[in-house]
Amino acid sequence: MRVLIADDHDLLRDTLVMFLQSQGDIKTETAPDLPAAHKLIEAADEPFDLVLLDLNMPGMNGLDGLKATLALGAGQRVALLSGEATKEIAEKALEAGAAGFVPKTLPAKSMINAVKFMAMGEQYAPIDFMTAADETPTHPMADKLTPRELQVLKGLTEGKSNKEIARDLDITEPTIKLHMKTLYRKVGASNRTQAALMAREAGLF
């Protein structure tokens, strides 16, 4: 099974590659933006079994990037990947012909199962996401952290740098580093990659 992962966050791409290749039967290629993904699709000897496109990476222009990728006509199945998309966007993606909608908040095992499911020709969207009300459930890991630490951890799971997180939250980089040191201790992580993996596997974001 061959999967193309197109996302502009290095950490997220590397994490997904690690998850999928740990299965042994999934080969992956990656691209940092939509034009690079299209070049790989067009240069491939045979269609990818699945193409995962980040909704917010360069070149996407919302759902237009999804439609353009589907229109390449190489036979590849294309799914949308996002940590911020609404249920409405997910529904529109599926209506446009996407193989599925994959929230970046999915735990590792669910992510792997979703990829295999879509690559086999099925359409995927998590039922709990598509039917959930707009409320934030309590979570054991979230209960350990302050709201600001949760915001920093969310930035880590999205593959953002300290500078990007600081800009998003309108605070300084040294403050971000202090928050990270505290949240590492609270969740039992030794570095940013481990903290992001733990949050993802716990389904926190």
Automatic annotation (TrEMBL):
GO terms for biological process: phosphorelay signal transduction system; regulation of DNA-templated transcription. Residues 2-119 form the Response regulatory domain. GO terms for molecular function: DNA binding. SUPFAM superfamilies: C-terminal effector domain of the bipartite response regulators, CheY-like. The modification 4-aspartylphosphate is found at D54. Keywords: DNA-binding, Phosphoprotein. Pfam families: GerE, Response_reg. Residues 138-203 form the HTH luxR-type domain. PROSITE patterns: HTH_LUXR_2, RESPONSE_REGULATORY. PANTHER family: HTH-TYPE TRANSCRIPTIONAL REGULATOR YHJB-RELATED, NARL SUBFAMILY. This is Two component transcriptional regulator, LuxR family. It comes from Vannielia litorea. The lineage of its organism: Bacteria, Pseudomonadati, Pseudomonadota, Alphaproteobacteria, Rhodobacterales.
